[in-house]
Amino acid sequence: MPRPWWEDAVFYQIYPRSFRDSNGDGIGDLAGITEKLDYLAWLGVDALWISPFFPSPMKDFGYDVADYRGVDPMFGSLDDFERLAAGAKARGIRIVLDLVANHSSDQHPWFVEARSSRLSPKHSWYLWTQDTGKPPNNWKAIFELGSAWFPNPATGERYLGTFTRWQPEFDWRNPEVRRAFYDIMRFWYGLGVDGFRLDVATAYLKDARLRSNPFSWRANPDFFQKHLYDRNQPGVHEIFAEMRKVADEAPGVGRRPSLPGERVLIGETHGQDAELAASCHGKRADELHMAFNFDFLNQRWKAKAFKTSAERWYSLMPIGAWPNFTLSNHDRPRHIWRYRARDPETTESRAKVAAAMLLTLRGTPFLYYGEEIGMGCFRLPRKALRDPLGVKTWPLGYLGRDSERTPMQWDSTPGAGFGSEEPWLPLNPDWRERSASAQRGRSSSLLEWYRALIALRRAVPALRGGSLRWTPASRDVLAFERADEAAGERVAVFLNFASRAGHAALAEEAAVLLGSARKEGRALAAGDCALGPNEVLIARLKPPLKPRPEPRQL
Length: 554
Ligand code: GLC
Ligand code: CA
Fold this sequence. Notes:
By secondary structure, the protein is of the alpha/beta class. It is built from 15 helices and 21 strands.
Protein backbone atom coordinates (compact mmCIF):
# COMPACT_ATOMS: atom_id res chain seq x y z
CA MET A 1 0.00 0.00 0.00
CA PRO A 2 1.37 3.46 -0.80
CA ARG A 3 2.22 5.61 2.19
CA PRO A 4 -0.49 8.14 3.01
CA TRP A 5 0.56 11.66 1.99
CA TRP A 6 0.68 13.03 5.54
CA GLU A 7 3.40 10.57 6.56
CA ASP A 8 5.65 12.11 3.94
CA ALA A 9 4.52 15.69 4.43
CA VAL A 10 6.17 18.65 6.11
CA PHE A 11 3.43 20.66 7.84
CA TYR A 12 3.57 24.40 8.39
CA GLN A 13 1.28 26.08 10.92
CA ILE A 14 -0.08 29.49 10.04
CA TYR A 15 -1.53 31.78 12.67
CA PRO A 16 -3.65 33.75 10.21
CA ARG A 17 -3.84 37.02 12.19
CA SER A 18 -0.08 37.29 11.94
CA PHE A 19 0.98 35.93 8.58
CA ARG A 20 0.17 38.58 6.00
CA ASP A 21 -2.33 41.43 6.02
CA SER A 22 -3.57 42.00 2.46
CA ASN A 23 -5.79 45.03 3.13
CA GLY A 24 -3.77 46.98 5.66
CA ASP A 25 -6.18 46.82 8.60
CA GLY A 26 -3.48 45.43 10.88
CA ILE A 27 -4.74 41.86 10.89
CA GLY A 28 -3.54 39.03 8.70
CA ASP A 29 -6.14 37.43 6.44
CA LEU A 30 -6.84 34.62 3.98
CA ALA A 31 -6.00 36.68 0.90
CA GLY A 32 -2.68 37.40 2.61
CA ILE A 33 -1.96 33.69 2.87
CA THR A 34 -2.86 33.29 -0.81
CA GLU A 35 -0.34 36.02 -1.66
CA LYS A 36 2.34 34.04 0.11
CA LEU A 37 1.66 30.65 -1.45
CA ASP A 38 4.60 31.07 -3.80
CA TYR A 39 6.87 31.59 -0.82
CA LEU A 40 5.47 28.46 0.88
CA ALA A 41 5.92 26.45 -2.31
CA TRP A 42 9.48 27.78 -2.62
CA LEU A 43 10.17 26.78 0.98
CA GLY A 44 8.88 23.34 0.05
CA VAL A 45 6.24 22.64 2.67
CA ASP A 46 3.54 20.13 1.77
CA ALA A 47 0.64 21.08 4.01
CA LEU A 48 -0.66 24.05 5.96
CA TRP A 49 -2.44 23.90 9.28
CA ILE A 50 -4.30 27.17 9.55
CA SER A 51 -5.39 28.28 13.02
CA PRO A 52 -9.10 29.27 13.21
CA PHE A 53 -10.43 31.93 10.84
CA PHE A 54 -14.15 31.31 11.48
CA PRO A 55 -16.53 34.05 12.63
CA SER A 56 -15.62 34.79 16.22
CA PRO A 57 -15.83 37.51 18.87
CA MET A 58 -12.04 36.89 19.19
CA LYS A 59 -12.03 36.54 22.96
CA ASP A 60 -9.46 33.80 22.40
CA PHE A 61 -8.52 34.96 18.91
CA GLY A 62 -10.62 32.54 16.96
CA TYR A 63 -10.56 29.63 19.39
CA ASP A 64 -14.05 30.84 20.31
CA VAL A 65 -16.11 30.06 17.23
CA ALA A 66 -19.52 31.63 16.54
CA ASP A 67 -20.12 29.90 13.17
CA TYR A 68 -18.30 26.76 12.12
CA ARG A 69 -19.10 27.09 8.44
CA GLY A 70 -18.01 30.61 7.68
CA VAL A 71 -15.07 32.97 7.53
CA ASP A 72 -14.81 35.95 9.85
CA PRO A 73 -15.07 39.14 7.74
CA MET A 74 -11.81 40.22 9.33
CA PHE A 75 -10.13 37.29 7.53
CA GLY A 76 -12.16 37.53 4.32
CA SER A 77 -14.96 35.40 2.91
CA LEU A 78 -15.67 31.84 1.87
CA ASP A 79 -14.72 32.92 -1.65
CA ASP A 80 -11.33 33.98 -0.31
CA PHE A 81 -11.02 30.58 1.29
CA GLU A 82 -11.86 28.86 -1.98
CA ARG A 83 -9.28 30.97 -3.79
CA LEU A 84 -6.71 30.03 -1.16
CA ALA A 85 -7.63 26.35 -1.42
CA ALA A 86 -7.41 26.42 -5.22
CA GLY A 87 -4.08 28.25 -5.15
CA ALA A 88 -2.69 25.79 -2.65
CA LYS A 89 -3.90 22.84 -4.65
CA ALA A 90 -2.33 24.19 -7.82
CA ARG A 91 1.00 24.16 -5.97
CA GLY A 92 0.48 20.73 -4.46
CA ILE A 93 -0.01 22.13 -0.96
CA ARG A 94 -2.69 20.60 1.28
CA ILE A 95 -4.81 22.46 3.81
CA VAL A 96 -5.76 21.35 7.29
CA LEU A 97 -8.24 23.41 9.33
CA ASP A 98 -8.42 23.89 13.06
CA LEU A 99 -11.65 22.46 14.47
CA VAL A 100 -12.53 23.87 17.89
CA ALA A 101 -15.17 21.36 18.92
CA ASN A 102 -14.73 21.20 22.67
CA HIS A 103 -16.42 24.56 23.12
CA SER A 104 -18.01 27.29 21.07
CA SER A 105 -18.14 31.02 21.58
CA ASP A 106 -20.81 32.21 24.00
CA GLN A 107 -22.04 34.22 20.98
CA HIS A 108 -22.67 31.11 18.89
CA PRO A 109 -26.43 31.01 18.12
CA TRP A 110 -26.50 27.52 19.66
CA PHE A 111 -25.34 28.81 23.01
CA VAL A 112 -27.45 31.95 22.82
CA GLU A 113 -30.45 29.68 22.42
CA ALA A 114 -29.23 27.12 24.95
CA ARG A 115 -28.80 29.64 27.74
CA SER A 116 -32.16 31.30 27.18
CA SER A 117 -34.24 28.50 28.71
CA ARG A 118 -33.90 24.99 30.05
CA LEU A 119 -36.59 24.03 27.56
CA SER A 120 -34.69 25.24 24.53
CA PRO A 121 -33.80 22.43 22.12
CA LYS A 122 -30.14 23.46 22.25
CA HIS A 123 -29.95 23.51 26.06
CA SER A 124 -28.73 19.93 26.25
CA TRP A 125 -25.94 20.65 23.75
CA TYR A 126 -23.91 22.27 26.54
CA LEU A 127 -22.92 21.29 30.07
CA TRP A 128 -24.90 22.66 33.00
CA THR A 129 -25.26 22.32 36.71
CA GLN A 130 -27.83 23.75 39.09
CA ASP A 131 -26.54 27.06 40.52
CA THR A 132 -26.51 26.62 44.27
CA GLY A 133 -24.44 29.75 44.77
CA LYS A 134 -21.17 27.94 44.49
CA PRO A 135 -19.44 25.80 41.87
CA PRO A 136 -20.16 22.05 42.01
CA ASN A 137 -16.49 21.06 41.97
CA ASN A 138 -12.91 22.35 41.78
CA TRP A 139 -12.50 22.45 37.99
CA LYS A 140 -10.62 25.52 36.83
CA ALA A 141 -10.94 27.85 33.85
CA ILE A 142 -7.37 27.92 32.59
CA PHE A 143 -7.37 31.49 31.27
CA GLU A 144 -9.41 32.92 34.13
CA LEU A 145 -7.42 31.42 37.00
CA GLY A 146 -10.72 30.73 38.74
CA SER A 147 -13.62 28.30 38.77
CA ALA A 148 -14.71 26.90 35.41
CA TRP A 149 -18.41 27.21 36.31
CA PHE A 150 -20.09 30.45 35.26
CA PRO A 151 -23.56 31.56 36.39
CA ASN A 152 -26.39 31.81 33.89
CA PRO A 153 -29.18 33.69 35.72
CA ALA A 154 -31.77 33.03 32.97
CA THR A 155 -31.90 29.34 33.85
CA GLY A 156 -30.58 29.42 37.42
CA GLU A 157 -27.67 27.24 36.36
CA ARG A 158 -23.95 27.40 35.79
CA TYR A 159 -22.23 26.38 32.56
CA LEU A 160 -18.75 24.99 32.14
CA GLY A 161 -15.86 26.87 30.49
CA THR A 162 -12.44 25.25 30.81
CA PHE A 163 -10.71 28.17 29.09
CA THR A 164 -12.59 31.45 29.49
CA ARG A 165 -16.19 32.30 30.39
CA TRP A 166 -16.64 33.10 26.70
CA GLN A 167 -15.99 29.48 25.67
CA PRO A 168 -18.88 27.31 26.94
CA GLU A 169 -18.28 23.57 26.64
CA PHE A 170 -20.37 21.15 24.61
CA ASP A 171 -21.87 17.98 25.98
CA TRP A 172 -20.30 15.43 23.63
CA ARG A 173 -22.45 12.68 25.15
CA ASN A 174 -25.31 14.23 23.23
CA PRO A 175 -25.62 12.49 19.81
CA GLU A 176 -27.00 15.70 18.26
CA VAL A 177 -23.74 17.49 19.06
CA ARG A 178 -21.75 14.71 17.47
CA ARG A 179 -23.89 14.74 14.37
CA ALA A 180 -23.60 18.51 14.07
CA PHE A 181 -19.82 18.36 14.16
CA TYR A 182 -19.56 15.45 11.76
CA ASP A 183 -21.67 17.48 9.35
CA ILE A 184 -19.36 20.46 9.79
CA MET A 185 -16.43 18.22 8.95
CA ARG A 186 -18.23 16.92 5.86
CA PHE A 187 -18.95 20.51 4.81
CA TRP A 188 -15.26 21.41 4.77
CA TYR A 189 -14.22 18.09 3.23
CA GLY A 190 -16.67 18.97 0.49
CA LEU A 191 -14.73 22.19 -0.08
CA GLY A 192 -11.59 20.15 -0.58
CA VAL A 193 -10.07 20.49 2.88
CA ASP A 194 -7.53 17.74 3.57
CA GLY A 195 -8.14 17.28 7.27
CA PHE A 196 -8.42 18.81 10.70
CA ARG A 197 -6.32 19.68 13.66
CA LEU A 198 -8.62 18.97 16.58
CA ASP A 199 -8.39 21.56 19.31
CA VAL A 200 -8.17 20.12 22.87
CA ALA A 201 -9.60 16.86 21.60
CA THR A 202 -9.13 14.96 24.84
CA ALA A 203 -11.32 17.41 26.72
CA TYR A 204 -14.47 16.57 24.72
CA LEU A 205 -15.80 14.40 27.54
CA LYS A 206 -15.96 15.12 31.26
CA ASP A 207 -16.81 12.92 34.20
CA ALA A 208 -20.58 12.34 34.18
CA ARG A 209 -20.70 12.76 37.97
CA LEU A 210 -18.66 15.97 37.87
CA ARG A 211 -16.24 14.75 40.53
CA SER A 212 -13.53 17.11 41.80
CA ASN A 213 -9.99 16.55 40.57
CA PRO A 214 -7.50 15.25 43.14
CA PHE A 215 -4.49 17.29 44.21
CA SER A 216 -1.25 17.30 42.22
CA TRP A 217 2.09 18.96 42.92
CA ARG A 218 2.26 20.36 39.42
CA ALA A 219 1.38 24.04 39.30
CA ASN A 220 1.98 24.78 35.65
CA PRO A 221 -0.01 23.99 33.59
CA ASP A 222 -2.03 21.80 35.93
CA PHE A 223 -3.20 24.23 38.62
CA PHE A 224 -2.27 21.76 41.32
CA GLN A 225 -4.80 19.28 40.00
CA LYS A 226 -4.57 15.88 38.47
CA HIS A 227 -7.01 16.16 35.58
CA LEU A 228 -8.80 12.89 36.16
CA TYR A 229 -12.31 14.17 35.72
CA ASP A 230 -12.45 17.39 33.68
CA ARG A 231 -10.73 15.77 30.66
CA ASN A 232 -9.04 12.51 29.59
CA GLN A 233 -12.19 10.35 29.78
CA PRO A 234 -11.82 6.97 28.02
CA GLY A 235 -15.09 7.45 26.10
CA VAL A 236 -13.30 9.90 23.84
CA HIS A 237 -11.87 7.00 21.82
CA GLU A 238 -15.33 6.23 20.50
CA ILE A 239 -15.61 9.82 19.24
CA PHE A 240 -12.22 9.60 17.56
CA ALA A 241 -13.24 6.38 15.83
CA GLU A 242 -16.44 8.06 14.60
CA MET A 243 -14.50 11.05 13.28
CA ARG A 244 -12.11 8.69 11.55
CA LYS A 245 -15.00 7.03 9.80
CA VAL A 246 -16.35 10.38 8.63
CA ALA A 247 -12.89 11.27 7.32
CA ASP A 248 -12.42 7.96 5.52
CA GLU A 249 -15.88 8.10 3.97
CA ALA A 250 -15.69 11.70 2.78
CA PRO A 251 -15.95 12.08 -0.98
CA GLY A 252 -12.54 12.01 -2.56
CA VAL A 253 -10.77 15.03 -3.89
CA GLY A 254 -11.70 15.29 -7.56
CA ARG A 255 -14.89 13.29 -6.94
CA ARG A 256 -13.36 9.84 -6.95
CA PRO A 257 -14.14 7.91 -3.76
CA SER A 258 -11.83 8.91 -0.96
CA LEU A 259 -8.92 6.61 -0.25
CA PRO A 260 -8.51 5.75 3.41
CA GLY A 261 -5.98 8.17 4.84
CA GLU A 262 -6.59 10.83 2.24
CA ARG A 263 -8.05 13.06 4.94
CA VAL A 264 -5.99 13.49 8.06
CA LEU A 265 -7.00 14.00 11.70
CA ILE A 266 -4.40 15.45 14.02
CA GLY A 267 -5.39 15.74 17.64
CA GLU A 268 -4.26 18.20 20.24
CA THR A 269 -4.20 15.58 22.93
CA HIS A 270 -2.71 15.29 26.40
CA GLY A 271 -0.01 17.90 26.29
CA GLN A 272 1.80 16.49 29.27
CA ASP A 273 1.29 12.78 29.00
CA ALA A 274 2.90 11.04 26.04
CA GLU A 275 1.37 7.69 26.90
CA LEU A 276 -2.19 8.98 26.91
CA ALA A 277 -1.48 11.00 23.77
CA ALA A 278 -0.16 7.94 21.93
CA SER A 279 -3.30 6.01 22.88
CA CYS A 280 -5.34 8.43 20.75
CA HIS A 281 -4.14 6.65 17.60
CA GLY A 282 -6.35 3.77 18.73
CA LYS A 283 -5.23 0.26 19.63
CA ARG A 284 -5.62 -0.77 16.01
CA ALA A 285 -4.52 2.62 14.68
CA ASP A 286 -8.14 3.30 13.77
CA GLU A 287 -8.68 6.60 15.60
CA LEU A 288 -6.66 9.79 15.03
CA HIS A 289 -4.02 9.59 12.31
CA MET A 290 -1.70 11.61 14.48
CA ALA A 291 -1.82 12.71 18.08
CA PHE A 292 0.35 15.75 18.56
CA ASN A 293 3.56 14.88 20.29
CA PHE A 294 4.35 17.86 22.51
CA ASP A 295 7.18 16.24 24.41
CA PHE A 296 9.92 18.12 22.52
CA LEU A 297 8.40 21.37 23.78
CA ASN A 298 9.41 20.34 27.28
CA GLN A 299 12.99 19.22 26.64
CA ARG A 300 16.15 20.94 27.71
CA TRP A 301 18.85 21.61 25.12
CA LYS A 302 20.55 18.23 25.53
CA ALA A 303 21.07 15.52 22.91
CA LYS A 304 20.22 12.90 25.50
CA ALA A 305 16.93 14.58 26.41
CA PHE A 306 15.69 14.57 22.82
CA LYS A 307 16.88 11.04 22.28
CA THR A 308 15.03 9.76 25.35
CA SER A 309 11.93 11.67 24.36
CA ALA A 310 11.90 10.38 20.76
CA GLU A 311 12.70 6.84 21.85
CA ARG A 312 9.79 6.87 24.27
CA TRP A 313 7.41 8.26 21.67
CA TYR A 314 8.43 5.57 19.17
CA SER A 315 7.97 2.85 21.75
CA LEU A 316 4.46 4.12 22.57
CA MET A 317 3.23 4.01 18.96
CA PRO A 318 0.61 1.31 18.40
CA ILE A 319 1.32 -0.91 15.38
CA GLY A 320 0.31 0.95 12.24
CA ALA A 321 0.53 4.41 13.83
CA TRP A 322 2.95 7.05 12.59
CA PRO A 323 4.95 9.42 14.81
CA ASN A 324 5.21 13.22 14.61
CA PHE A 325 7.40 15.92 16.09
CA THR A 326 7.15 19.63 16.71
CA LEU A 327 9.19 22.27 18.50
CA SER A 328 6.99 25.37 18.39
CA ASN A 329 3.38 26.48 18.12
CA HIS A 330 1.06 29.39 18.93
CA ASP A 331 0.75 28.42 22.60
CA ARG A 332 4.38 28.22 23.68
CA PRO A 333 7.40 30.52 23.44
CA ARG A 334 9.30 29.80 20.24
CA HIS A 335 12.05 27.22 20.47
CA ILE A 336 14.82 29.51 19.25
CA TRP A 337 14.03 31.62 22.31
CA ARG A 338 13.78 28.65 24.65
CA TYR A 339 17.15 27.36 23.45
CA ARG A 340 18.91 30.71 23.24
CA ALA A 341 22.56 30.86 24.23
CA ARG A 342 24.50 33.87 25.46
CA ASP A 343 25.87 34.73 22.04
CA PRO A 344 23.63 35.06 19.00
CA GLU A 345 25.85 32.87 16.80
CA THR A 346 25.41 29.89 19.08
CA THR A 347 21.68 30.54 19.24
CA GLU A 348 21.56 30.51 15.45
CA SER A 349 23.63 27.31 15.27
CA ARG A 350 21.30 25.66 17.75
CA ALA A 351 18.34 26.66 15.61
CA LYS A 352 20.04 24.86 12.73
CA VAL A 353 20.64 21.76 14.83
CA ALA A 354 17.00 21.83 15.97
CA ALA A 355 15.73 22.16 12.40
CA ALA A 356 17.91 19.31 11.22
CA MET A 357 16.64 17.10 14.02
CA LEU A 358 12.99 17.91 13.30
CA LEU A 359 13.43 17.30 9.58
CA THR A 360 15.44 14.07 9.71
CA LEU A 361 13.78 12.12 12.50
CA ARG A 362 11.32 9.40 11.60
CA GLY A 363 7.95 11.13 11.91
CA THR A 364 5.98 13.98 10.40
CA PRO A 365 7.45 17.39 11.25
CA PHE A 366 5.27 20.37 12.14
CA LEU A 367 6.83 23.80 11.66
CA TYR A 368 5.44 27.04 13.04
CA TYR A 369 5.41 30.15 10.83
CA GLY A 370 8.50 32.28 11.30
CA GLU A 371 10.65 29.54 12.80
CA GLU A 372 12.31 29.19 9.39
CA ILE A 373 13.67 32.72 9.74
CA GLY A 374 14.44 32.33 13.42
CA MET A 375 11.82 34.70 14.79
CA GLY A 376 12.33 34.96 18.51
CA CYS A 377 10.25 36.04 21.48
CA PHE A 378 10.41 39.17 23.58
CA ARG A 379 8.52 40.69 26.46
CA LEU A 380 5.72 42.88 25.11
CA PRO A 381 4.76 46.07 26.93
CA ARG A 382 1.64 45.56 29.00
CA LYS A 383 -0.55 47.76 26.83
CA ALA A 384 0.34 45.67 23.78
CA LEU A 385 -0.85 42.39 25.32
CA ARG A 386 -3.87 40.77 23.67
CA ASP A 387 -3.87 37.14 24.78
CA PRO A 388 -6.39 36.61 27.62
CA LEU A 389 -3.90 34.39 29.40
CA GLY A 390 -1.08 36.93 29.02
CA VAL A 391 -3.28 39.74 30.30
CA LYS A 392 -4.45 37.70 33.26
CA THR A 393 -1.01 36.53 34.33
CA TRP A 394 0.88 39.78 33.72
CA PRO A 395 3.58 40.42 34.91
CA LEU A 396 4.07 36.95 36.35
CA GLY A 397 3.22 34.88 33.29
CA TYR A 398 6.38 33.75 31.54
CA LEU A 399 5.53 35.80 28.45
CA GLY A 400 1.87 35.17 27.74
CA ARG A 401 1.21 33.79 24.26
CA ASP A 402 1.46 37.05 22.31
CA SER A 403 5.22 36.90 21.98
CA GLU A 404 5.05 33.82 19.75
CA ARG A 405 2.25 35.37 17.66
CA THR A 406 3.88 38.57 16.43
CA PRO A 407 3.62 39.45 12.72
CA MET A 408 5.69 37.49 10.23
CA GLN A 409 8.80 39.42 9.22
CA TRP A 410 8.78 39.44 5.44
CA ASP A 411 11.18 42.25 4.64
CA SER A 412 12.83 45.36 6.03
CA THR A 413 10.33 47.93 4.77
CA PRO A 414 8.31 49.72 7.47
CA GLY A 415 5.89 47.20 8.96
CA ALA A 416 8.19 44.33 7.92
CA GLY A 417 6.12 43.68 4.79
CA PHE A 418 3.35 42.29 6.98
CA GLY A 419 0.98 44.72 5.32
CA SER A 420 0.40 47.47 7.81
CA GLU A 421 2.53 49.74 9.93
CA GLU A 422 0.21 49.23 12.86
CA PRO A 423 -0.22 45.50 13.19
CA TRP A 424 -2.45 44.03 15.89
CA LEU A 425 0.66 42.98 17.83
CA PRO A 426 3.96 44.86 17.74
CA LEU A 427 6.75 43.55 15.54
CA ASN A 428 9.58 41.73 17.17
CA PRO A 429 12.30 44.39 17.65
CA ASP A 430 14.72 42.39 15.49
CA TRP A 431 12.52 42.64 12.36
CA ARG A 432 14.95 44.81 10.38
CA GLU A 433 17.78 42.31 10.57
CA ARG A 434 15.69 39.19 10.57
CA SER A 435 13.32 38.82 7.66
CA ALA A 436 12.51 36.36 4.92
CA SER A 437 13.81 38.65 2.17
CA ALA A 438 17.09 39.32 3.99
CA GLN A 439 17.70 35.58 4.27
CA ARG A 440 16.45 34.39 0.93
CA GLY A 441 19.36 33.64 -1.35
CA ARG A 442 21.95 33.98 1.42
CA SER A 443 23.36 30.46 1.54
CA SER A 444 24.37 30.54 5.21
CA SER A 445 20.95 31.75 6.41
CA LEU A 446 18.55 29.80 8.57
CA LEU A 447 15.85 30.16 5.92
CA GLU A 448 18.01 28.55 3.23
CA TRP A 449 18.96 25.87 5.75
CA TYR A 450 15.30 24.97 6.31
CA ARG A 451 14.73 24.97 2.58
CA ALA A 452 17.68 22.68 1.96
CA LEU A 453 16.56 20.29 4.71
CA ILE A 454 13.01 20.16 3.38
CA ALA A 455 14.29 19.53 -0.16
CA LEU A 456 16.58 16.80 1.12
CA ARG A 457 13.73 15.13 2.97
CA ARG A 458 11.73 15.18 -0.21
CA ALA A 459 14.59 13.80 -2.33
CA VAL A 460 15.70 11.01 -0.02
CA PRO A 461 13.03 8.39 0.78
CA ALA A 462 15.08 7.00 3.69
CA LEU A 463 14.61 10.32 5.51
CA ARG A 464 10.85 10.00 5.26
CA GLY A 465 9.76 6.41 5.56
CA GLY A 466 13.06 4.79 6.50
CA SER A 467 13.69 2.98 9.77
CA LEU A 468 15.64 4.72 12.52
CA ARG A 469 18.49 3.30 14.55
CA TRP A 470 20.50 5.25 17.13
CA THR A 471 24.24 5.00 16.50
CA PRO A 472 27.20 5.45 18.87
CA ALA A 473 28.40 8.99 19.52
CA SER A 474 29.90 11.16 22.24
CA ARG A 475 27.60 12.51 24.91
CA ASP A 476 26.45 15.75 23.31
CA VAL A 477 25.90 14.26 19.87
CA LEU A 478 22.58 12.89 18.70
CA ALA A 479 23.44 10.29 16.06
CA PHE A 480 21.14 8.04 14.12
CA GLU A 481 20.85 6.17 10.88
CA ARG A 482 17.81 6.21 8.64
CA ALA A 483 17.56 3.23 6.31
CA ASP A 484 15.26 2.36 3.45
CA GLU A 485 16.01 -1.31 2.96
CA ALA A 486 13.96 -1.61 -0.23
CA ALA A 487 15.83 1.24 -1.91
CA GLY A 488 19.15 0.05 -0.40
CA GLU A 489 19.68 3.54 0.99
CA ARG A 490 21.17 4.51 4.34
CA VAL A 491 21.70 7.97 5.73
CA ALA A 492 23.71 8.93 8.81
CA VAL A 493 22.65 11.99 10.81
CA PHE A 494 25.00 13.59 13.36
CA LEU A 495 23.83 16.54 15.44
CA ASN A 496 26.24 18.13 17.87
CA PHE A 497 24.26 19.90 20.59
CA ALA A 498 27.36 21.32 22.27
CA SER A 499 29.66 24.23 21.50
CA ARG A 500 32.68 21.96 21.70
CA ALA A 501 33.99 19.17 19.51
CA GLY A 502 32.20 15.82 19.44
CA HIS A 503 32.48 12.41 17.86
CA ALA A 504 30.31 9.92 16.07
CA ALA A 505 30.91 6.71 14.19
CA LEU A 506 30.38 6.15 10.49
CA ALA A 507 29.54 2.55 9.71
CA GLU A 508 30.77 2.84 6.12
CA GLU A 509 32.39 5.30 3.82
CA ALA A 510 29.96 8.11 3.14
CA ALA A 511 29.34 11.25 1.14
CA VAL A 512 27.96 14.47 2.58
CA LEU A 513 24.35 15.17 1.65
CA LEU A 514 24.02 18.33 3.71
CA GLY A 515 26.23 19.79 6.38
CA SER A 516 26.59 22.98 8.37
CA ALA A 517 30.37 22.85 7.96
CA ARG A 518 31.05 20.58 4.99
CA LYS A 519 30.27 20.76 1.32
CA GLU A 520 27.82 18.46 -0.35
CA GLY A 521 29.48 15.50 -2.03
CA ARG A 522 32.59 15.50 0.18
CA ALA A 523 33.79 11.98 0.90
CA LEU A 524 33.99 10.76 4.49
CA ALA A 525 36.03 7.79 5.64
CA ALA A 526 34.43 4.99 7.64
CA GLY A 527 35.10 4.98 11.36
CA ASP A 528 35.46 7.81 13.83
CA CYS A 529 34.09 11.14 12.62
CA ALA A 530 35.15 14.29 14.49
CA LEU A 531 32.48 16.97 14.64
CA GLY A 532 32.92 20.68 15.19
CA PRO A 533 30.92 22.72 17.73
CA ASN A 534 27.16 22.60 16.94
CA GLU A 535 27.89 20.83 13.71
CA VAL A 536 25.20 19.13 11.66
CA LEU A 537 26.28 16.40 9.28
CA ILE A 538 23.94 14.36 7.11
CA ALA A 539 25.66 11.81 4.91
CA ARG A 540 24.73 9.02 2.56
CA LEU A 541 26.43 5.77 3.47
CA LYS A 542 27.95 3.77 0.65
CA PRO A 543 25.99 0.58 0.13
CA PRO A 544 28.04 -2.33 1.50
CA LEU A 545 29.93 -4.07 -1.31
CA LYS A 546 27.96 -6.93 -2.77
CA PRO A 547 30.04 -10.04 -3.51
CA ARG A 548 30.82 -9.96 -7.23
CA PRO A 549 29.08 -12.70 -9.24
CA GLU A 550 31.52 -15.47 -10.16
CA PRO A 551 32.59 -15.30 -13.83
CA ARG A 552 30.66 -17.89 -15.72
CA GLN A 553 32.60 -21.07 -16.46
CA LEU A 554 32.99 -21.74 -20.13
C1 GLC B 1 -5.92 25.00 22.42
C2 GLC B 1 -5.35 26.06 21.51
C3 GLC B 1 -5.24 27.33 22.27
C4 GLC B 1 -6.62 27.75 22.72
C5 GLC B 1 -7.29 26.64 23.53
C6 GLC B 1 -8.75 26.88 23.69
O1 GLC B 1 -5.06 24.69 23.45
O2 GLC B 1 -4.14 25.63 20.96
O3 GLC B 1 -4.64 28.35 21.52
O4 GLC B 1 -6.55 28.91 23.49
O5 GLC B 1 -7.17 25.38 22.90
O6 GLC B 1 -9.43 26.67 22.49
CA1 CA C 1 -6.35 42.33 6.94
